């Protein structure tokens, strides 16, 4: 997916661009009225803009040139000018404010929909997509939408500015206006030129900057490796090359902007003044003309050219916006949904009996990772799954948790298909304890409650006591309100496990699914965890990927898995008696102990 | 203004370039005065009917040439001033990078990656603004402001000028005040956005937990709270941000009011001409930018100087690891003698290590075992000279390791760390990290020894496969083996494996260790591990607990001691067998 993204940077065909823009604009539709209002203000702004030179022109031509003027008349025109200015100021403020707020709300809307969409996606999506990629879509790409929306504002302002000043010129003098229009093709050529060169250089500059920052971050993260291998000098040299390359492309960007942006627009404006003076001057050689009109025309010419610099400058942002939009839409279009439950699913988990009947499952629809798996776990019993990596232990849990949908066979809970239960019922009645316990930023309480407001503080404390997490929690400053930093970095892995036990047990699940940690756990908490696991299993149907001897020996049933097949099953004693591969492993280790 | 002085080294260095830019800027400022004046003159000539073909042609020719000349000069100053700003950024970025690579561990503990990145991006931008926008604004405000003002005073009318410019200082004040306010609110908005970022990050990283507990709806609600906060903070920003243009309009409106009123009176009294009036109105418009820019200048300077402060603070940090004058520069060889009385991490009162004493003869192997956090890695860090401040002596070949140059020591040590950091590059480049000049054969030989060669061949592009952020994701065991290959490749005198086999299965571990034993005849090895099987063949094994040695001996003698080692060994054997040999 990331690879596709990189290629997209090159160029998106025009039609696709239009499609992307149309789709992303649809997220703005709830705020249509605000946007329309802002556009209306935009028109009003351009109109007041055109009125101001006209006031001065009339003042000059109708009053000043006629000789002495009454002070009252002068004051009237000065006041008129000021009055329009006040209107202009007010209109401008509301235009900006309303537009900005509408675009802010649109971004919020996009974010909300994107985030909700993410939660509708199944584990397959998260297993296949890197976390960083998803985060960037939800934050930076949506943030880029604000700039994108601002580009639209610039375009609207620019277009109205240009057309209304042209209109005002037409009202004054059609011939002169037509003459001024000869600048239009020149402008179009310059805009096109600028667009071609700047978008290329701009894209290059941006990708070089991101390369530069990636290199910097990598170097900082890998500093100990660099120092260990004494590669400081080499990396300094390499970094300087990237740094230089970025400077070079930035410098080209500066040159392109200097060559084609405001200096050239400024020159064209002055040349248009030459044209205006020439036409009026030549006319004046034969017959007298009104001079205020010259002032008005030079003013309008300024209004005509001025918005173009900003308009051109925002072209590169426009490209960025299209790219960000297309990335957002890839997420919105993703169809790796959470497995579907039956439409009127309303079953309840009562006893917690689990049955797998001939279940086959594959991640990619080609290679089965589970083949005809059948087993039954009676209410309150424990089943232990044993086998190598890739034997299918985790896949059984993925199927049972409905992280993935299975292709063949039946999974029954309390005799009813797992598809007959609402997802919420399944999630709340089954407690999965993950191998790596993940803690969220917040407090201990928050982490045990995990956003479920129905859970009381009392229940939290009881749950913690039950798994014996209370001892270390009560020693913390603030106890249950003690801060948990990002990813729970200040706790040992054992402590994190205990907290996650508590959050599972506080929900009192009927079914317990354990993915036991293989990681080294500090010995102090090891015994607490062992005991906690035992207590949690009591009275609950348990499916465990077992790494602990105690869990395996206590199990009512052990499944030995190999390449997606069950190769042996039975209790510990039965399996030893049978003399299969389980016994082989067990004996091997006994001999090992004696040497 | 102090920031300009502190950056004077750069301005001096780029003296010519800045001079050219500023001279162009000043000439442009003067040239800018011509068009309004010509418009005024032509207006007057038409009004008084004194216009002739010759005078018109002359004025238009002058106007056209100023247009072209302005274009050229504007191009020059833009390229000079903005180009220099980019150059300053480049130079300081290099200073920062070089400095980072010279810093010790303590530095990286004090400053987190995110902070350092922020300095290298935001603060550099602040600095670039000073060298570009700052200089430009300063020069522009002075030259355009001053020349226009002079032109208004002397060419048009001094009375009209003095009255019309009364409101203009308000522009400077407004931009300064609004700019400051905006900056504060903007910072809040940034903070809100970064909280939103954190929220998303957590939700995605913890997606399995959220799904497990079926808390999707609640999570979306929490997310909404965050976006509401972002909207609220940005609303505050927009309230101020949308004020800038209207405020300018208002202040200029007052000025125009005064101009029209007083100008009208003056024309009416025949004191000035209509052409003067037209010229004057244009000039007033030209003062907007310089006045406004002065206010902005203060903000640029303020932020730039804060940025430079932060950068300089970083650059002033010193490393505690330094080579002694006249340090030994022949590569380490011989026996290692480790006699440590005590060591505590800087700014930490707890003793992390105490009385660690061992001797490792050249060619020998030492095993270090102990539970997580016992101090195994710290022992190795001291050997790698990540910390130099400790009581005791570590000697290699009879000399204190602190008496060697860093090259002499570290180039002979192949350290495979616990967390296997790979760079976003091809597998080949990652393996030959220590020397990109090495051949493919050498890389493959090392990969074979680390038992990763086959795995690499099965990847889409073999040795050219990219790893890291943008590349394929490797399993923990694969990463470990690549790091081992990376260390093997330098054929180190001392090889250190720091729990580097924890993610590979027992059989692979066996293969790698025996392979290493074969090629590393006569070279020294230290293996720290949680898993006993990694160290059981070592000549000596030390067991560390809470920073001290609690047991020591060979595998056999340790089993007889009936202590921690034996317990651990039995437990691990048992569990491993039941897991089917999986780690």
Automatic annotation (TrEMBL), chain A:
<keyword id="KW-0812">Transmembrane</keyword>
<feature type="domain" description="ABC transmembrane type-1">
    <location>
        <begin position="36"/>
        <end position="320"/>
    </location>
</feature>
<dbReference type="GO" id="GO:0016887">
    <property type="term" value="F:ATP hydrolysis activity"/>
</dbReference>
<dbReference type="GO" id="GO:0005886">
    <property type="term" value="C:plasma membrane"/>
</dbReference>
<dbReference type="InterPro" id="IPR017871">
    <property type="entry name" value="ABC_transporter-like_CS"/>
</dbReference>
<feature type="transmembrane region" description="Helical">
    <location>
        <begin position="178"/>
        <end position="197"/>
    </location>
</feature>
<keyword id="KW-0067">ATP-binding</keyword>
<dbReference type="InterPro" id="IPR036640">
    <property type="entry name" value="ABC1_TM_sf"/>
</dbReference>
<keyword id="KW-1133">Transmembrane helix</keyword>
<dbReference type="Pfam" id="PF00005">
    <property type="entry name" value="ABC_tran"/>
</dbReference>
<protein>
    <submittedName>
        <fullName>ATP-binding cassette subfamily B protein</fullName>
    </submittedName>
</protein>
<feature type="transmembrane region" description="Helical">
    <location>
        <begin position="148"/>
        <end position="172"/>
    </location>
</feature>
<dbReference type="InterPro" id="IPR003439">
    <property type="entry name" value="ABC_transporter-like_ATP-bd"/>
</dbReference>
<dbReference type="InterPro" id="IPR039421">
    <property type="entry name" value="Type_1_exporter"/>
</dbReference>
<dbReference type="GO" id="GO:0015421">
    <property type="term" value="F:ABC-type oligopeptide transporter activity"/>
</dbReference>
<dbReference type="InterPro" id="IPR003593">
    <property type="entry name" value="AAA+_ATPase"/>
</dbReference>
<feature type="transmembrane region" description="Helical">
    <location>
        <begin position="74"/>
        <end position="94"/>
    </location>
</feature>
<keyword id="KW-0547">Nucleotide-binding</keyword>
<keyword id="KW-0813">Transport</keyword>
<dbReference type="Pfam" id="PF00664">
    <property type="entry name" value="ABC_membrane"/>
</dbReference>
<keyword id="KW-0472">Membrane</keyword>
<feature type="transmembrane region" description="Helical">
    <location>
        <begin position="258"/>
        <end position="282"/>
    </location>
</feature>
UniProtKB/TrEMBL annotation, chain B:
<feature type="transmembrane region" description="Helical">
    <location>
        <begin position="243"/>
        <end position="268"/>
    </location>
</feature>
<feature type="transmembrane region" description="Helical">
    <location>
        <begin position="18"/>
        <end position="39"/>
    </location>
</feature>
<feature type="transmembrane region" description="Helical">
    <location>
        <begin position="59"/>
        <end position="77"/>
    </location>
</feature>
<dbReference type="Pfam" id="PF00664">
    <property type="entry name" value="ABC_membrane"/>
</dbReference>
<dbReference type="InterPro" id="IPR011527">
    <property type="entry name" value="ABC1_TM_dom"/>
</dbReference>
<dbReference type="InterPro" id="IPR039421">
    <property type="entry name" value="Type_1_exporter"/>
</dbReference>
<dbReference type="GO" id="GO:0005886">
    <property type="term" value="C:plasma membrane"/>
</dbReference>
<dbReference type="InterPro" id="IPR017871">
    <property type="entry name" value="ABC_transporter-like_CS"/>
</dbReference>
<keyword id="KW-0812">Transmembrane</keyword>
<dbReference type="InterPro" id="IPR036640">
    <property type="entry name" value="ABC1_TM_sf"/>
</dbReference>
<feature type="transmembrane region" description="Helical">
    <location>
        <begin position="162"/>
        <end position="179"/>
    </location>
</feature>
<keyword id="KW-0813">Transport</keyword>
<dbReference type="GO" id="GO:0005524">
    <property type="term" value="F:ATP binding"/>
</dbReference>
<keyword id="KW-0067">ATP-binding</keyword>
<dbReference type="GO" id="GO:0016887">
    <property type="term" value="F:ATP hydrolysis activity"/>
</dbReference>
<dbReference type="InterPro" id="IPR003439">
    <property type="entry name" value="ABC_transporter-like_ATP-bd"/>
</dbReference>
<keyword id="KW-1133">Transmembrane helix</keyword>
<feature type="domain" description="ABC transporter">
    <location>
        <begin position="338"/>
        <end position="571"/>
    </location>
</feature>
<dbReference type="Pfam" id="PF00005">
    <property type="entry name" value="ABC_tran"/>
</dbReference>
<dbReference type="InterPro" id="IPR003593">
    <property type="entry name" value="AAA+_ATPase"/>
</dbReference>
<feature type="transmembrane region" description="Helical">
    <location>
        <begin position="280"/>
        <end position="301"/>
    </location>
</feature>
<keyword id="KW-0547">Nucleotide-binding</keyword>
